[in-house]
Write a structure and sequence with these properties.
alpha/beta; TIM Barrel; 2 domains; 14 helices; binds flavin mononucleotide
């Protein structure tokens, strides 16, 4: 798959997810087959104001190249300024414009999904970004209820210079309920010449195949299914290539993956108690009697106790007779 001047080996993309897609998580997903990964949305206003925490969300490493940064905002000049600041601090492979976040505070600020009702402003934003940046620009939208409006927005995004469009097939009001509307994604794909990436409800190999077949899109973006399970990229890419399912081994893999995650956090000095607690909880799923372990993690008061719980799990795997 090509996005602007960038060429990717595969066509599986990790979705931007606030609080989740930090550098270690993105690197793990890449290790297991994601061709492209995005940061969580970064507020352009906060970056331009000099907010350190927001700028740090754009932190990357050369292991990650090319890395996408997702911008959130509504003012074309501020978005361009923020992109240039972020690009200056860390070389960014491509920028994505958030046109789909349904969170209340984002909508109230006139950003995310709210922009879908202002197609002319969308055009100005995409044009400003693609004129000012020497890297590809993508846009990520949710859909509206009206087919013509969806197609109109998609055409505007393409005409304004975007190099790819990502479509999550749900409306703002749907939040995460109902299903991602594959017919709308397919219609948008038919309408555009730039690559279109389908997003929403891809949870395993079979749904990935189904979404690709139904929409004929150029790539797939995977979000929630990758939380605590970066190996999903290996499973899906293997299936799409060979039409064969990899053997399960799910829990052992997840345990290995959380240990890999911790290693990466250490490497980049990003290991924190809160993040480790949250991520351990997500990684340790899909195993009998795991409830009591997750409860222990929930009650853990410091990093050492979580590391202790994970160590016990690892020992138990080596010696299944040991109890937790
Ligand atoms: C915890 C969480 C945080 C998210 N943060 C973002 C974000 O920062 N930017 C964005 O465009 N979408 C965000 N999303 C939406 C996802 O990128 C994706 O569009 C959505 O989850 C549907 O894909 P899925 O069914 O594969 O999860 C977020 C989703 C979740 C669950």
């Amino acid at each position: 798959m090509n996005i602007g001047k960038l060429t990717f080996n595969g066509n599986l993309i990790l979705a931007p997810m606030a609080g989740i897609t930090n550098l270690p998580m993105r690197l793990l997903c890449k290790r297991y087959g994601a061709s492209l990964v995005y940061s969580e949305m970064i507020s352009s206003e906060a970056v331009v104001r000099g907010n350190r925490e927001s700028t740090d969300l754009g932190f990357t490493s050369c292991e990650e190249k090319p890395f996408g940064v997702q911008l959130m905002g509504s003012d074309p000049d501020t978005l361009v300024q923020a992109a240039l600041i972020l690009h200056n601090v860390n070389p960014v492979g491509l920028f994505d414009m958030n046109l789909g976040c349904p969170a209340r505070d984002i909508i109230r600020a006139g950003c995310g999904c709210k922009l879908l009702k202002k197609p002319l402003l969308i055009g100005k934003i995409i044009q400003a970004l693609s004129d000012s940046l020497d890297v590809p620009v993508t846009a990520k939208i949710r859909i509206l209820n009206c087919t013509d409006e969806n197609l109109n927005i998609a055409r505007i995004i393409e005409r304004s210079g975007a190099d790819a469009l990502i479509v999550h097939g749900r409306t703002q009001n749907q939040g995460y309920s109902g299903r991602s509307n594959l017919d709308v994604i397919r219609d948008i794909k038919k309408e555009l010449s730039i690559p279109v990436i389908a997003n929403g409800d891809i949870s395993d190999e079979l749904t990935a195949r189904h979404v690709l077949d139904h929409t004929q899109c150029d790539g797939l973006m995977i979000g929630r299914a990758a939380i605590g399970n970066p190996y999903i990229f290996r499973r899906i890419s293997h299936y799409l290539e060979k039409e064969e399912l990899l053997p399960p081994g799910e829990f052992d893999r997840r345990l290995d993956n959380i240990l890999e995650y911790i290693e990466l956090c250490r490497k980049y000095n990003m290991l924190t108690f809160n993040d480790l607690k949250l991520k351990s909880y997500w990684f340790l799923k899909n195993r009998e009697n795991i409830k009591s372990v997750r409860k222990k993690i929930n009650e853990a008061k410091n990093m050492d106790s979580i590391m202790g719980i994970l160590g016990e799990l690892r020992n138990q795997r080596i010696n299944p007779a040991a109890t937790l």
